[in-house]
Design brief:
Shape: globular
CATH topology of the largest domain: D-Maltodextrin-Binding Protein, domain 2
Number of helices: 11
Strand order of the largest sheet: 2-1-3-10-4-11
Radius of gyration: 25 Å
Distance between the termini: 68 Å
Order of helices and strands: HEHEHEHEEHEHEHEHEEHHEH
Number of strands: 11
Length: 334
């Protein structure tokens, strides 16, 4: 038998060569994908909430228009849980190739400000595309309630703090923080009662177990139209076109109160600028179609269509608002 001795330097060189050969197919695969025209396969929009709410309606409506304009299917995937953390983390860890989009909700700023530990960086792990739309929330009470205005609500809360509570669709959501903000600016102490969804919260308000909540128009529309809820105020600085006769909380004695729900889009950080620009242009075009604008206006949703830079500035402003509230009211959670 003949044996051949290979010195250590040659052995290392040989092993490196074999390793390079084994990696060649993967490298070739990545190279070929990088050279493909965009898009060359289906895209998906991850919505970090269950289906059915206005955010889901917005994502699906935009997805339909992107499918038509980009020539590839755009699929909406609902990944709820963890106050949006599950779906958001999924996109943060996805390939930065422009095929997985996140519908970024206002809760993204709330989590960034108040969540003690996040499994992602809320700014650095994303390339933001556009702030697509926003909508005021409505402060509502039961139709049978003796409370008929924000002033009535504040007076009742000051007279009997333990008797006034506000519902939300869950800790850390828009309604929770809007209620805490009203507590802060009005110097009251309404009790927060979290529910698993807006529908359950509204049912208990109608039943008298809880006094009020903050809801999008779409979330409360059926009960309002059935004359089971009344609207005290809207949360935005300006009155909502859907309710021109309903005052704002700012008009009701608290001029600094100005918060809304909003929805934007982002992809994983590191996505090519050309792809982000393409998605921005396509989403803006989709948002500005008359049919979509009319559909959303009926739910008090306003199209924004910001630049990526404007979106980041808006996001940082919201983070600062909620962080300041958290420090003043000592609000935080795991």
């Amino acid at each position: 038998m003949i044996t051949t001795k290979i010195d250590s330097r040659k052995r290392r060189s040989l092993l490196r060569g074999l390793a390079a050969l084994s990696m060649a197919p993967a490298i070739a695969g990545k190279s070929s994908r990088a050279s493909e025209p965009y898009p060359s396969r289906a895209l998906r929009i991850v919505v970090p909430y269950p289906p059915g709410a206005i955010n889901d309606v917005l994502a699906r409506a935009i997805g339909e228009r992107l499918t038509a304009s980009m020539g590839k299917a755009v699929i909406v995937e609902n990944k709820p849980g963890g106050n949006t953390l599950i779906g958001t983390q999924f996109v943060a860890k996805s390939d930065p190739d422009g095929y997985t989009l996140l519908q970024v909700p206002a809760a993204h700023a709330i989590n960034a400000a108040l969540q003690r530990r996040l499994p992602y960086d809320p700014i650095k792990d994303f390339s933001f595309i556009t702030l697509a739309a926003r909508a005021p929330f409505l402060l509502v009470v039961s139709k049978a309630s003796p409370i008929n205005s924000v002033q009535d609500l504040v007076a009742a809360a000051k007279k009997a703090p333990d008797a006034i509570s506000f519902a939300s669709s869950g800790t850390g959501g828009n309604a929770h923080l809007m209620g805490e903000l009203l507590n802060n600016v009005a110097d009251i102490q309404m009790l927060h009662v979290p529910y698993k969804g807006t529908a359950a919260a509204i049912n208990d308000i109608i039943g008298g177990q809880v006094q009020c909540t903050f809801s999008t128009y779409s979330g409360a529309a059926a009960a309002i139209q059935a004359d089971r809820l009344k609207v005290l105020a809207v949360t935005s600085a300006k009155r909502a076109p859907v309710f021109p006769d309903i005052p704002t909380i700012a008009e009701s004695g608290y001029p600094s109160y100005d918060v809304v729900g909003w929805w934007g889009f982002a992809v994983a950080a590191g996505t090519a600028t050309a792809i982000v620009d393409r998605l921005h242009n396509e989403i803006i075009q989709a948002c500005n179609t008359p049919a979509l604008k009319e559909r959303l206006a009926a739910d008090a949703v306003e199209i924004v269509g910001s630049t990526p830079e404007e979106f980041v500035a808006y996001l940082n402003k919201d983070i600062a608002l909620w962080r300041d509230l958290g420090q003043r009211a000592r609000i935080t959670w795991e």
